[in-house]
Amino acid sequence: MDGGLTRLRDSVERARGRLVVLIVLAVGLYFVVAFGEQAWRARTLQAEIAGRREALAAMQARHDELAWQLVRYRSDYESYVERVARRDLNLARPGETVLLLRLRPAPTPTPTPTPAPGQRTTTEPSWRAWLDLFGLP
Fold first, then answer.
1. Residues 5-15: b if buried by 16+ CB within 10 A, e if exposed
2. Rounded to whole angstroms, how far apart are CA atoms 131 and 137?
3. Which residues, 6+ apart, have CB-to-CB distance to 90 below 8 Å?
């Protein structure tokens, strides 16, 4: 009986050893899978962070462009309003003096008859006409 009991103990010890090895393998496999999953999540989050940084940079560039346009349009608008107020409404800033000028239309020219070729219009001597033609006194 003693031989059968030893065999039984040996087989129980072997089974217990195998069970311990299986448990250790299962726990090790669990940690490997959990670590892989965490590494995958970290990689996914890093890719998402990179994408959001790119989107933020694009938004920042758009913000800077819009801020520049706002400054430009505001100054253009203010100068336009001031120009219209001064020109059309005769308005001035405090302390300035406004001069209003009335412009009269130019008189209409009266047509002068042109002399026929070879016909003299004045009675001055011809030598005087030659001096006038060359711009001499």
1. eeeeeeeeeee
2. 7
3. 98, 100
Tokens of 103: 């412009």
User: Cα torsion for 46, 50, 52, 57, to the nearest 10°?
Assistant: 160
**pLDDT tens by residue, 7-58:** 888 888 888 889 999 999 999 999 999 999 999 999 999 999 999 999 999 9
Structure tokens at 26: 């299962």
User: CA 25 to CA 38: how far, in whole Å?
Assistant: 20
86 burial level (CB within 10 Å; 0-12, 13-18, 19+): middle
Distance CA 7, CA 13 (A): 10
